[in-house]
Amino acid sequence: MISKLSVISDRATIGKNVTIHPYVIINDGVCIQDGVEVFPGAVIGKETDGSAGEKVVIGSDSKIGSHTTIYYGVKIGPNTNIDAYCEIGYPTKLVENPSLTIGAESLIRSHSIFYTGSKFGARLVTGHRVTVRENTCAGENFQIGTLCDIQGDCTIGDYVRCHSNVHIGKKSRIGSFVWLFPYVVLTNDPTPPSETLIGSVIEDYAIVATMSVILPGVIVGPHSLVGAHSLVTRNVPEGMIVGGVPARIFGPASDMKLRDGSGKPAYPWTGHFHRGYPDEITNQWVQNDQQNSIDNSGGGG
Predict the structure, then answer these.
(1) Which H or E element spans position 283?
(2) 138 three-class SS
């Protein structure tokens, strides 16, 4: 069903079983695949500085919310939902390639802004009012909490979890299976204000607890834990707990126990927390945990 109150270019491609509500604008070079629904007031294919040569692709069975604007150069994977009042592919002169790719089965909630020049893997999930700047490359199932701010030129791995109000400074590098809890700040300017930006690094499986600040160039090692309200001024070794202002090492994270009465180690957290991860990944974690138990008990020979 296509409303007569919408404006659709003759040079747009519309698939089968597409629903376009009233007051939608679809411009030249837009490809809307089968089963897509576009809600009132959306604009698809907004031109900026001669960008009309870049096509827009809306993957099959996706939904585009009311008053959302999708600029040229955007490719959205199938089964993706974008809520109302979002801006997708927001233009900037800070990129060489003005394109934006959103992977399949993603969910972008209302009032979020994604700049052009970035690429996101499948199953991206955001809260509300998220801002993601240019040249950000993120892997599969990146979760970005409400009011998070990613300043661009960042590399982010698979299955990264950002709670609300996280600030990720330019040139940050984040591994896979990382947790950043509310109000964490990754800084990048060692002598503010200056033109010298040195991003911090958060390696695989690390956890940074709420209200912590990571200073420019600091490396938080894999499987480590940064305690709440910490100011991290030095590199954090693998598998260690740090905390305080400035942060200091308290010992191996594996010494911490779960507070559920079981007496089991809290870290590595993969030994007990599997919610939200695919079975093929969590099964491997279980196997690794079992093998480590055998090795530590001296039964591996």
Answers:
(1) helix 279-296
(2) strand
Tokens 């079975």 locate to 279
Alpha carbon separation from 17 to 22, 34, 38, 65, 81 (Å, rounded): 16, 6, 12, 17, 17
Instruction: Name, in order, each residue with C-beta under 8 angstroms of 278's C-beta and a sequence gap of 6 or more.
Output: none
Q: How far apart are CA 21 and CA 30, in angstroms?
A: 16
**How far, CA to CA in Å, does 119 sit from each of 50, 51, 146, 220, 301?**
22, 18, 20, 24, 46
Ordered domains of the chain (ranges, CATH) = 7-296 (2.160.10.10)
Longest dimension (CA), the chain: 75
Question: Is 301 a residue whose pLDDT tops 50?
Answer: no
Q: Find tokens 């199938």 and name the residue.
A: 78
**Tens of pLDDT along 182-223?**
999 999 999 999 999 999 999 999 999 999 999 999 999 999
Backbone angles phi, psi at 70, to 5 degrees: -115, 120
How does DSSP assign 212-274, residue by residue? -EE-TT-EE-TT-EEPTT-EE-SPBPTTEEEETTTTEEEEEGGG-B-TTTT--B--SGGGT--
* Number of CB atoms found within 10 A of residue 209's CB: 18
Confidence of residue 123 (pLDDT cuts 50, 70, 90): very high
Structure tokens belonging to residue 122 = 């499948």
What CA dihedral angle connects 232, 235, 237 and 240, to 10 degrees? 0
Tokens, residue 243: 């905390």
Quote the tokens at residue 167: 């600030």
From CA 22, how far away is CA 40, in angstroms rounded?
5
The 10 Å Cβ neighbour count of residue 73 is: 25
Closest to 18 measured CA to CA, from 32, 39, 5: 32
Phi, psi of 38 (to 5 degrees): -120, 125
